[in-house]
What we know:
Oligomer: single chain
Protein name: Haloacid dehalogenase type II
Strand order of the largest sheet: 3-2-1-4-5-6
Strand content: 5-15%
Structural class: alpha/beta
Keywords: Hydrolase
Organism: Bradyrhizobium diversitatis
Mean pLDDT: 93
Number of helices: 11
Number of strands: 6
Distance between the termini: 27 Å
Low-confidence stretches: none
Largest sheet: 6 strands, parallel
Order of helices and strands: EHHHHHHEHEHHEHEEH
Amino acid sequence: MTPPSDHSAVKALVFDVFGTVVDWRTSLIADFMWWGKQRGITADWTALVDGWRGMYMASMDDVRKHPERGYVMLDDLHRRSLDKLVEKFAIKGLTEADLDYLTKGWHRLHPWPDSVAGLTRLKTKFVIAPLSNGNVALLTNMAKFAGLPWDLILSAELFEHYKPDPETYLGAAKLLCLKPEEVMMVAAHNGDLAAAQKNGLKTAFVARPTEYGPLQKVDFEATGNWDIVARDFGGIADRLGC
């Protein structure tokens, strides 16, 4: 493997969010189990959450394949997937308000233990922002809920393209008035970093081996020649002198 390239020119760090910054699976399962007890609604919430995430990529691919239909933000894709899962799992008695609560569960995700402290350190030296497929309202509400200290919100919604489309990575650099090589993409997913690197961004990998719980199959370790590979966000801050 060749030595990582110099990253002294980096001025901004952009982050994948679901799985990299926040623990979506544990957060949603705990939220829905508590909520289900309050409402007296019984369901296999773990299976629903895993099934929901399992529909994520396909729902975005459908938007990509049908540009004539226009861009559809992630909240709306999540709701469409939820409606199918409620039917599949035969969950009865849900009102419109209930379905809205469940959909907005993605706005109420808890950070990994190192996320807030690591982001706070990185913020002292760099512009930091999400670069997520989540829509702007979702990411803003999540930041308020989880205490994420972003400088601004960068979302696929702004570019009307989902990652890994080039428009997301290049669009983020453009909005920041930076060259791609002045922006570092941070993710727990090798595929996300490969797409960012292909578009000229610097890259940092942090493994989140429990993201998918027992269903995790990939991303246990770095598989590309990334500029930084660290154990957690604190490790990235160490490498970048924060």
